[in-house]
Each structure stands twice: as structure tokens, then as C-alpha cells.
Amino acid sequence: MESKEMPAVGGVLETSIYVDDLDRAIEFYGRVLGVSHMTLGDRGASFDFGPGSVLLIWRRGASARDNEDYPGGMIPGHDGSGPLHLAFKIPTDTYDAWKERLERLGIAVRSEVRWARGGRSLYFDDPEGHVLELATPGVWPNY
């Protein structure tokens, strides 16, 4: 009998959100979170969120059809609606600085949570209503 091991998954590489106003989203994520886009097009933009971590922001509906014109192969269509949730890692010693930054930028903190493992989270919304979280280590057993 042949033994087959489960192939490994190394983590989440990309996460997508969908917006009605792409220009506003690009400005917000750059200004508030200080990230820069790696690619920019009519359909969407990709943002560098650290080694091996990419946030894709798509104009709602622009990625719904299969992209059969991509030179390397067909990329299946995808889209979404409604408020999504994203959490970004921050070092523990930057929590207060992030809270102050959001307040200084006029971004309302919706909630703060102290987790049982010692982590802390700040929750706020992006302009499209997506719920964003800045989380310190101690939120999950693996973080």
C-alpha cells in the first residue's frame, strides 16, 4: 500500500477585497496604512503587505469574468460584495501609536479588544465599509 503525505500549504499569499471607488481605496490604504501598490490598472491594484503577503483591491465587478487573455494561462473570475474583514499584524509596542495615528487622521476606532492570550486589536472601517483590524501578537495561538 502506497503512503501519500499531505502536501504542505505555506500560508495565505493573496487576499482580495472589492470596492466601488478604486481611486479612493488606493488613496486610503496608502495614506492610512502606509503601503504602496505594486501594480495598478483599471481593474484593480496590488499592495505589498510584507514578505509574501499581498492585498488585491479590485473594482467591484471588474474581475468577475475569467481572464482568458493572460499570457501565462486563464485566471478564473471572482468578485464579492458586502463588508469584508481583514486583520493586519502590528508589533505590540506600536499599538498606541497606531491608535493615535487613526485618531489624528479622523478615522473612528469602532472597537478595541483585549484578547485572552494577551493580544490587542483596533477595529475601524475603510471607506467602502470593510472592517479592518490592527492586531498585536497574542490574538491567535499561532500569532
Keywords, please?
143 residues; alpha/beta; 2,3-Dihydroxybiphenyl 1,2-Dioxygenase, domain 1; 2 domains; four-stranded mixed sheet; 8 strands; 15% helix
The CATH class of the largest domain: Alpha Beta
C-alpha geometry: globular
| SS elements, strand count | 8
In DSSP terms, counting alpha (H) and pi (I) runs of 4 or more, how many helices?
2
According to CATH, what is the topology of the largest domain? 2,3-Dihydroxybiphenyl 1,2-Dioxygenase, domain 1
**What integer is the average pLDDT?**
95
Cross-sheet strand order for the largest sheet: 1-4-3-2
What's the number of domains? 2
The fourth-level CATH homologous superfamily of the largest domain is 2,3-Dihydroxybiphenyl 1,2-Dioxygenase, domain 1
The helix content, as a percent range, equals: 10-25%
Low-confidence runs (pLDDT<50, min 5 residues)? none
Q: Strand share of the residues?
A: 25-35%
Nearest-angstrom radius of gyration?
18 Å
Q: How far from one another are the termini?
A: 38 Å
Secondary structure class reads: alpha/beta
Largest sheet: 4 strands, mixed
Describe this structure as you would to a colleague.
This protein has 143 residues and is an alpha/beta fold. It folds into 2 domains: 11-81, 2,3-Dihydroxybiphenyl 1,2-Dioxygenase, domain 1 (Roll); 83-143, 2,3-Dihydroxybiphenyl 1,2-Dioxygenase, domain 1, CATH 3.10.180.10. Helices cover 15% and strands 29% of the residues. It has 2 helices and 8 strands, in the order βαββββαβββ. It has helices at residues 22-33, 95-104, and strands at residues 14-19, 37-40, 44-48, 54-59, 85-89, 111-114, 120-125, 131-135. A 4-stranded mixed β-sheet has the order 1-4-3-2, with helices on one face. A 4-stranded mixed β-sheet has the order 5-8-7-6, covered by helices on one side. The longest helix is centred in the N-terminal third of the chain and has 12 residues, at 22-33. The radius of gyration is 18 Å and the shape is globular. The relative contact order is 0.17.
